[in-house]
Every structure is written in structure tokens, then in C-alpha cells.
């Protein structure tokens, strides 16, 4: 089969590789009909997530048809059309039973690498996301093996297009969780850093969860336009202001947003001494992440406010404004998305038309286009806001 493989920093290749097979009797094989590139894939593309190996098959946003079924699978049969959540979860461990699927204790066979690197317990395995996240092959391929198939994939009713549901695999539930962890109260003002695909769904989710105002922050006109015109946020081009934190305060009666969501992650862009120092330190591996957005969320939040970090971070950061966090009595939450937990409700909401699922797709391509698609989505060229590929 054909599959998108990682070859090194900023080097992707579409290769012919062996077809996947059932390994455990709880697996299914999915024939992929649509797959997307995620902002998280860019952290692999730029090699900020370690333990990548040449030839690794990427991709964790995918859907398709079940074409082979392990003996122990009870919920799925050949011919079912499914969307697959990006975290791999057993459904039986303590964490899974608490709905904390992204922390599954049984799906990451390489947990000890994470434990050594982070000095703490590992989360779930993830499709196509490095060896420290389990070394699983991803969904940017013609076929993918899906373990724990009774727990993850959700069946899609007939008559719904791939594009209407593909983002249930990741970015929709991720945006939803970002808003939920902000504990939005009716009437709150929510600020969202980053108007990429995750920010796009975080904004829509924030309104559905009761926000009165959402202020969205980015610098690319096409992303700000989606946030403003489709998601109905007030937008700030942060290149047009010298003091974003001050501007946010002015826009909120001097208090700052009640909830600040970081949908940017470890590759934040920024100006000034701190941002430059982050860039140098990250390149030298003295600091793992560039936390411009994290710092600003904490500085901008109203006293007693909440900070929800959904952008991915991989390690240790400098100049964390702990004083502001403590002094203002903030609450902070983060984490990979527990996709499985939200899928039944979110599928119903998608079918009811609660979300705009497709306006963010700027490029519809084939798997063979992956190398240039990665480059374009990474560099934000050609107005690229989201790439969907078909094998
Ligand atoms: N926690 C999870 O489960 C989960 C799931 C999916 C994605 N993610 C993460 O969410 C983040 C965003 O993903 P995406 O697909 O939207 O990526 P993306 O790269 O398309 O979007 C990131 C956006 O942030 C903007 N940005 C950069 N620096 C900024 C700054 N200083 N202030 C404001 N905006 C800034 C960029 O211009 C870009 O539009 C990534 O870190 C990704 O890994 C997390
Ligand atoms: Zn993702
Ligand atoms: Zn589990």
C-alpha cells in the first residue's frame, strides 16, 4: 500500500510499504477514505517530538471502511464506516473507566521512554506519533491497523459525507475539550490564542458552552477571517498591537478575559527578547517548547480566571509567570483530548448542524501530495488552513 512516511526533519515521502494485518484479535483494519494533517503532525515534521524513526507512517486524523475484523471485536463488522479517535485506549484500565482515555495505561508499550523524558507517567499511545507514543503506524495511508477497535472507532450513519465527520477524529473534540477545561460560565469572555484548526473548533465550542464573547488571536488573514466570519469571534491580529495583554484588558473593562485558551502549542511565533531566547534555546534543546502563548494566557486572564492549554507541549519551559498565576488565583488545565469520551455527544451535535465542519478545509488533495502539503500547512502558505487527503 501507499503511505506517508517521515524521513527526517521537514522530509516526508510517500512510499510503498507492506499492508497492515490484524495483530491482536481486538484489532480491525480500516481502509482509509479521508485523512488530514494536524498541527500536531507539524511537531513531528519539524522534529520537536523525539523518538521518530525513518520510515514511520504518520497521521492520526483518519476515517474509512472496516475491511478486516479480529475475532474478539464485537461492535464492528466488515463494511462499517468509522471515524477513528487519535488516542488509542483499552477501555478497561482505571483511567479509561474514568473517561480519561488519553491517559490509558495499556496502549503505550513504550511508556518508559516518556517516564524517563518527562519524569512522570505516560499517556496513551497515539496513531503515527513517534515511538515514545507507542510507535503505532498512522492513518495517512491506504490502510491502518486500529487496536482496541471496540473502544475507539465510532460508526457513521449513511448519507453523511466524509468531510462532515472526519474532524471528529481529533480537532473538533479537542476544541470542545479546550473549552470545557476552561469551565466557561454563561456570559464569560473567552480569548483563544491561535486560529488554526484547533482554535477554529475551540471558538465554536466556547459559544456552544455559554460564552458571551470570544476574542480570537492570530496573525494570518485567512485564519483570522475564518475565526471572524465563520466562528463569529472578535479578532485580533497580534502583529498590529505592541501590547496584546493590555489590549485584551482594554477590551474587557480592565479585567482581562475570564477564560484564556492556548490553541497554539510549542511552536509559537513571537517577537521580542523572550521569544528570541525561546527559539535559540529550543534549537539547542535547552528548552523544549516555545511558550509565548502560555505566558500571555496567564498574564491576560482576569483574576480568578481559567487557563486551558490544548496546544501540545513536550517538556520544560523557561520564564513561566508563576507569580501572575498564583497572584491572580488562576486555574490551569491541559492535556491530550479524551476523544472517545466526547464522540457520542459530538456526533449528534454534528448531525444537528451545531458546528461548521468544512469551511476550514482549504486544500483537498491526494496522499501522493503529502510532501508538499506538509510544507504548505507548516509554512502557512497558499492560504492553507487545513489539508484533507484521499488515498
Ligand atoms: N491536546 C490535544 O489533544 C491536541 C489535539 C490536536 C492538536 N493539538 C495541538 O494544538 C495546537 C494547534 O493545532 P492546529 O492544528 O490548530 O495547528 P496550526 O499550526 O495550524 O495552528 C496554530 C496557530 O497558532 C498561531 N500562532 C502561532 N503563534 C501564535 C501566538 N504567539 N499567538 C497567537 N497565535 C499564534 C499560528 O499562526 C497558527 O494559526 C498544536 O500545538 C497541536 O499540536 C492538541
Ligand atoms: Zn491532531
Ligand atoms: Zn485504558
List the helices and strands and how they pair.
Blueprint: E1 2-8, E2 11-16, E3 28-36, H1 39-45, E4 56-57, E5 61-69, E6 81-84, E7 87-88, H2 94-97, H3 111-118, E8 125-126, E9 143-146, E10 154-155, H4 162-165, H5 171-181, E11 189-193, H6 197-208, E12 213-218, H7 221-230, E13 234-237, H8 244-251, E14 259-262, H9 272-283, H10 292-300, E15 306-309, H11 322-327, E16 331-334, H12 339-351, E17 363-366, H13 370-379, E18 387-390
Parallel strand pairs: 11-12, 11-14, 12-13, 14-15, 15-16, 17-18
Antiparallel strand pairs: 1-2, 1-4, 3-5, 3-9, 3-18, 5-6, 6-10, 7-8
Helix pairs in contact: 5-6, 5-12, 8-10
The protein binds nicotinamide-adenine-dinucleotide and zinc ion (2 copies).
Describe, in plain words, how this protein is organized in 3D.
- It is a single chain.
- The protein is α/β, with parallel strands linked by helices.
- It has helices spanning 39-45, 94-97, 111-118, 162-165, 171-181, 197-208, 221-230, 244-251, 272-283, 292-300, 322-327, 339-351, 370-379, and strands at residues 2-8, 11-16, 28-36, 56-57, 61-69, 81-84, 87-88, 125-126, 143-146, 154-155, 189-193, 213-218, 234-237, 259-262, 306-309, 331-334, 363-366, 387-390.
- The chain folds into two domains: 2-169 and 337-390, Alpha-Beta Complex (Quinone Oxidoreductase, Chain A, domain 1); 172-334, 3-Layer(aba) Sandwich (Rossmann fold).
- The chain is built from 13 helices and 18 strands.
- Strands 3, 5, 6, 9, 10, 17 and 18 form a seven-stranded mixed β-sheet that branches.
- β12, α7 and β13 (234-237) form a beta-alpha-beta unit.
- Bound molecules: nicotinamide-adenine-dinucleotide and zinc ion (ZN) (2 copies).
- One zinc ion binds next to loops.
